[in-house]
Specification:
The protein is mainly α. The protein is built from 5 helices and no strands. 82% of the residues lie in helices and 0% in strands.
Length: 130
């Protein structure tokens, strides 16, 4: 068992309730990271609600593509792990933002970098606390 599982079992907290609380916070953080990525890429950032809709659309599109690739039995490789999601993100951002595909790809790359840095910060804080 890992440490968070032990803490949940010891504290008597229900994992579903924690997911119910943390999922909206994660969605809000991803929307904020998308707005920040747009600013870094010199694209006019969308409003927070529009960014939240875009992040939710990115999640649904990537889950659908992953499900399709898994069902069809596509071998996992560099293209299916990284290139296909990057293309899907660029397509969704091109449709959702008033930008061209190259700018949308730059926003997608910046969004991934900012999200990874946020995740790394959470891991460092979590490691220091536990």
């Amino acid at each position: 068992m890992n440490i968070p599982t032990l803490l949940l079992a010891a504290g008597g907290m229900d994992p579903q309730w924690i997911l119910l609380v943390l999922a909206p916070l994660g969605l809000a953080a991803a929307a904020w990271a998308l707005r920040l990525a747009c600013s870094f890429s010199l694209v006019d950032p969308p409003g927070f609600l529009h960014a939240t809709y875009l992040v939710a659309t990115l999640i649904v599109a990537n889950v659908a593509v992953r499900f399709f690739l898994e069902v069809t039995g596509t071998q996992p490789g560099l293209s299916t792990r990284y290139a296909v999601p990057a293309i899907i993100n660029a397509i969704v951002l091109t449709i959702g933002l008033p930008v061209n595909p190259v700018s949308a790809f730059m926003v997608a790359v910046a969004h991934v970098v900012i999200s990874c840095l946020m995740y790394l910060g959470c891991v460092i804080v979590g490691t220091a606390l536990f």
